[in-house]
Amino acid sequence: MNILVINAGSSSLKFQMYNMVNEEVVASGRVERIGMDTAILSYEPVGGKEIREVDEILEHTMAIRKVLELLVHKEHGVLASIAEIDAVGHRIVHGGESFSSSVVVDEVVKKEIKRLFDLAPLHNPAHMLGIAAVEQNMPGVSQVVVFDTAFHQTMPATSYLYPIPLVLYKKHQVRRYGFHGTSHEYVSQRAAKLLGKPLESLKMVTCHIGNGASCTAILHGKSVDTSMGMTPLEGLMMGTRSGDIDPAIVPYVMGKEELTLNEVNSMLNKHSGLMAISGLSSDMREIQDAMDKGDRSAKQAFEMYEYRLRKYIGAYTAAMNGLDVLVFTAGVGENSSLLRGAVCRNLTYLGLELDEQANGKRVSGDRAISTAESRVQVLVIPTNEELVIARDTYQLIAKAAEK
Ligand code: ADP
């Protein structure tokens, strides 16, 4: 079975073509600057040469058409015909309270995703464009949607409610939803497998630390709290996002600097975090390089980033009354031994013992970085959200075919 995985943004579209016989990616790529006459399409068949084209791609339907053309291209293609694509899986950022697992797309599902536009105005409309573009190019093909929020739907009200007038939850669905759920779920299942223990027996904190960052308390396999909130702005300090701040700062700064709502939103989402404190970059590699050269602002940014992450790990340990496993994943979590080391060296009160050598090794793949004696197992597990989308799509389509 061949599954096309799509992550559609407002002006971009990433894709991976999976052969589910051995869960292998056979081709992948992205279209950027959709809507412009200089859109960029990159496509790479596994084992082949990357192709880059600059072209006028004005909307998502055209972007998908171009991708499909390449997938069946005589020279560069990986499929004989489009009919070989059995189903398409989409990443959807916001599933609200309506979706606690992945589902096959039908009219009801589409209507519900549209109803949720208000909660994710930058993301959900773009995902819908992706779904419509597939319908137009591949009429009748089965589509599945996989939500970033679904895994966190197990959170109890004590975690997901905000202590503000309850009417705002009832009228406007103001509550914590959490994001990166596909990643937190994947690494937690992988961690249990690697440790050879049932997920149901473990207290785990998973740290997805990329450009966006969140950590999740996973008690016996279920998300019981997570650092991102109603939007992906809450929680940890990130590349360009502030994470937690005193909410009273917003009206105060708006008044003092005469900012509009849009401007203050942009400040907190795009001009804060590592970028704001270092004054240099939102990219952890560049922060670390600058620190090596003695840059004090970069050091300050790094220290705040680490400190805020460590406080969350402490809070979630308290939330679960203990911690058995700590997992690091995503760009920074998988690659920055500096960050992992700084966090873990300050968690010795939990009986956590870092294996300095294992942490420092430049290797990829799943690995343990705690000592054999450590009371808390610390793992680095590369995330693979696309694989989860491909698997969910495969399973749901197979189930639907049985009926
Ligand atoms: P996204 O959230 O956009 O998917 P990623 O998960 O790819 O982001 O993470 C990007 C972040 O990972 C960037 O801050 C980047 O600097 C960081 N990163 C990637 N490789 C390294 C590395 N070797 N050392 C430190 N940070 C790294």
From TrEMBL:
Annotated ATP binding sites: K14, H208, I209, G210, N211, G212, D283, M284, R285, G331, V332, G333, E334, N335
Spell out the reaction equation it catalyses. acetate + ATP = acetyl phosphate + ADP
- CDD domains associated with the record: ASKHA_NBD_AcK_PK
Matches recorded under SUPFAM superfamilies: Actin-like ATPase domain
What does the record note about the cofactor?
Mg(2+). Can also accept Mn(2+).
Would the keyword Kinase be found if you checked this record's keyword annotation?
A: yes
Keyword annotations of the record: ATP-binding, Cytoplasm, Kinase, Magnesium, Metal-binding, Nucleotide-binding, Transferase
Q: How does it assemble?
A: Homodimer.
PANTHER family documented for this protein = ACETATE KINASE, ACETATE KINASE-RELATED
**What's the family?**
Belongs to the acetokinase family.
Please explain the role this protein plays, according to its UniProt record. Catalyzes the formation of acetyl phosphate from acetate and ATP. Can also catalyze the reverse reaction.
**What name does this protein carry?**
Acetate kinase
Q: Which gene encodes it?
A: ackA
